Amino acid sequence: MGYARYVRCVESVKSMVNIKIITIFSICAMLLSACVGISKTHAAYQPTRSQKAFLNELSRRSFLFFWEQGQHKTGLIPDQAQADGSGHGDVASVAAVGFGLTAYCIADERGWESHDKLEERTLNTLRFFANEVETERGFYYHFLNMETGKRAWKCELSSIDTALFVAGVLTAKQHFDNSEIKSLATKIYERIDWEWMRNGKPTLTMGWKPEEGFLNARWSSYNELMLLYVLAIGSPTHSIGPDAWDAWGRNRVVNYGNKTFLSCPPLFTHQYSHAWIDFENKRDKYADYFLNSRLATLAQQQYCDDLSKRFPKYSKKLWGLTASVGPKGYMVWGGPPGTITPAIDGSIVPCAPGGSIPFAPEACVPTLYYMYKQFGNKVWKRYGLIDAFNPHTNWYADDVLGIDVGITLLMAENYKDRFVWKTFHKNPEINKAMKQIGFKSLSTKERSKKRTSSVFFRKKPVRDIRKNDKPLAVAKFNPEHKVGNRDWQTMILNGPGVAKFAFTWDENKLVFHAQVSDIKIKQKQPANKLYLDDCVELFIDPKNDGIKWKNKEDWQIGFAPPKRVYEWFGENRSHDAVIKTNKNNNGFTVRYEFQWSELGLNPRKGLMLGVSPVVNQTELRYEGKTEWHFVNNGKKIEVGLLRLSK
Q1: If residue 445 lies in a helix (H) or strand (E), which one and from where to where?
Q2: Nearest-angstrom CA–CA distance, 589 and 516
Q3: 3-class DSSP state for residue 432?
Q4: Distances (CA, A) of 231 to 203, 435, 444
Q5: Which range is most confident: 271-275, 570-574, 626-630?
């Protein structure tokens, strides 16, 4: 999941067993089957009878993956398998087991399999994971040997995959009326030492390896992390405080197609936490996360339609980008924005709309049904829709991934009658954590208004800087952006490390001070590509009227050792004579002087100008930019304020 998911190796699938392939179902036969209704919450959109029948069959076939490919005695579920059911790989995914445990609850509710068999499989799984599978402080390794349950590939002890597994454990705890299931589920959850996984910092790390310790990457910016933090805050034994919820950044706000939302391009990042936690009609002090995922889904539909000039098969009825199997191995596609690699190649990933069904059924259900009708048995197999295909090159994946099948199944069932949400929220720890975090129901006005932004923007902070003040008198950049009126602040980075910033001034100049520490410094690019290295940037809005891209009255200027500076918006405004940098083993410092005349300002008490310090970390690719922007409405960027005082 997250970064671990981006870099993982995908094992080639080996044929191991032969399973009889069921024929393509007919619509008539489906209509005669028992069809589950659609939740009243989504009554605004009503799929056709054929689409409802298709969704039911898609869910049932998705369940078959977990039931047929999972090991009955251990509960281990393969990371991937042949879409036709003919075999699977020899590596299990801990996250897939979490989806599988939830799938067994769904199957029991829907009557797809014997209650006794489902309960027995669930019990075997929990016994094996509670007593046999290797853990460290209650956390599980990302991948396990399918036969033995031992760690595979020297992979990491994964915080997010453990969370996805535990979500399934807690769902089973509430669904099955079995005392041993409840006892084992409690044991698994309560032994996890969440504080240990913070490794002394505000945010949770992505994992740990016995060979090298904690991973540098952290869960420190918006993505699929919300489930992880809710479980950690709600733990009855080793909880972390609700302040951890405030510690991760919500800086990456995107405006696309008249929709403003927190962005993380691969669509699964907007889906996984919502598979279990019901965020609908709720908000914290930052955002409406359910609406955020809806807007991200609709924006991606529009984004693919906008790409139809390059990929003519793309349209509003055929779209879907997220992480999946690809023609060249495991791929991470996404957008908007389209800034991640590898480049989009015209492929379609069915679980992208599949995992977003409750958010935007009017966009997702017709698209999934279109895939089934248009491409038939090229994409429709024993376990539902294949993992990915490219209609432009006629490439069709042979496989399905457990987590991709899982997100489609859980979200389809939540759409029908909120089953997973209702079951998971019977765990008091979850509701307690959400109350501690500060979630509240949307007001009647907020529910009734058709909103195109999911983010609740706060007032721009004001920072007083005293004349000739000492630099680097630092406090903490907290996520609410409440800035003290004396001390400048420390920025919580998306990745490892700390950045401290301060400003001082006199009658001639404004001085910017920066100190970045505890990062691995990469310095390889020329000055005009400084942003691709580890560096500090500063945006300045002298007139405080919003930063407009490449407006010559505004500034975007970057700094990095050895004494490198580059300015993008203006011409010949940067002067090497006024920059000082110092590099050490784990970071660097910057001191840069802006002449008031360059900024077009006359310094005086009470003068206010906009600023946004930024840190770029190459280690984290597109996630590695931490910035202090507040509002990005697609035309201008509003930032925080400096106010001169004596």
Answers
A1: helix 444-448
A2: 6
A3: helix
A4: 14, 13, 29
A5: 271-275
